[in-house]
TrEMBL record:
Highest rank taxon of the organism: Bacteria
One Pfam family named in its UniProt record: DCC1-like
Name of the protein: DUF393 domain-containing protein
Length: 125
């Protein structure tokens, strides 16, 4: 399961890309509509980064969630996903993910709401 921030225009744009081109055999849900307790994650985790929750209930966040998504999507996407799991690429991916996530309101598809704290963002549908 892929859990993303449904209030963020940039995140929603990225998820639409994933649905259209990667077509993973996975549930994709905005954290605002997910039963986070059932998934074993907290609201704070979901607000902070993209989450991938596998069938065993293990949660992966940020760049590692992206890696798991790519791996799960199959070829040709699994190759870069596997690469994202290996140091030093893993470290660089983490840094890049944080840079993007921290500035998502300034990126294409982002909205001013992306820069607001989660409790002050209007829900985008």
């Amino acid at each position: 399961m892929l859990v993303f921030d449904g209030d963020c225009g940039f995140c929603t744009t990225c998820v639409r890309f994933v649905e259209r081109y990667l077509r993973p055999d996975a549930t994709i849900i905005a954290w605002q509509f997910a039963d986070l307790g059932e998934l074993g994650v907290t609201r704070e985790q979901a607000e902070y980064e993209l989450l991938w929750v596998d069938q065993r209930g293990r949660a992966f966040g940020g760049a590692q969630a992206v890696a798991k998504l790519l791996i799960h999507a199959g070829l040709p996407w699994s190759a870069p996903g596997l690469l994202l799991r290996v140091p030093p690429v893993r470290w660089l991916a983490h840094w890049l993910y944080r840079a993007v996530a921290d500035n998502r309101g300034r990126l294409p598809g982002g909205t001013p709401a992306c820069a607001l704290p989660a409790d002050r963002r209007p829900l985008q549908r």
